[in-house]
Amino acid sequence: MMDETRRKLLASARAAFAEKGFSDTSMDDLTAAVGLTRGALYHNFGDKKGLFAAVVDQIDAEMAARARSLAEAESTLWNALLAEGSAYIEMALDPEVQRIVLRDGLAVLGDPAHWPSQNRCLDATRAAVTQLLAEGVLRPVDIEAASRLLNGAALNAALWVAACDDPALMLPKAQEAFRMLAEGLLVAQAS
Q1: DNA-binding region located at which positions (predicted)?
Q2: pTM of the model
């Protein structure tokens, strides 16, 4: 019963946040839409911000899974790392991702470095950088610094694409710049 209540609240909130944004979404509207009360929301998520954080985490996890699935098609770990970053940036074209994660997420939840979903992405990047360094693909570099900068570059590129007047026009520019920045870590400039 509790899982079903959480699922209903998440689905209702996700639709409402995507359509209206965080500030224009009423707790009463999103609970009434699924036949629940504010008490159910408070019990399961603490408050509206807690529910929003859960929605961001859900979407960000889906984004990471999509990026990983594209990366799995690549022949090398390096190409997989580039594919994940590029895919993350491209997801800034998705209206739900734009509004909930890349716009309201920052305004409501603050620094993405403190979001559990972003830290899971950082962990995956750190593992890839560690392996690439061990294989001699990367120049000697601090693993933590390289991992955080790669993650930050992809996130900031996605934020830029989502916020600009013509996201589709800016996307290839952002992806190319991300690739060029990342290639600066390579021992040889061929991938």
Answers
A1: 26-45
A2: 0.89
User: What would the two tokens of residue 28 be?
Assistant: 């009463």
Q: How far is CA 124 from CA 35, 118, 173, in A?
A: 39, 10, 25
Q: In one letter, which amino acid is 76? A: T
* SS3 assignment, position 186: strand
Look at the block and give the residue holding tokens 């290639």. Answer: 183
The predicted-structure confidence for 129-176, as pLDDT tens digits, reads as follows 999 999 999 999 999 999 999 999 999 999 999 999 999 999 999 999
Instruction: Give the C-alpha separation, 57 to 105, whole Å.
Output: 10
Q: Which tokens belong to 54? A: 């859960």
CA pair distance 185, 137, nearest whole angstrom: 8
Q: Output the CA angle 180-117-132, nearest 5 degrees.
A: 40
Length of the chain: 191
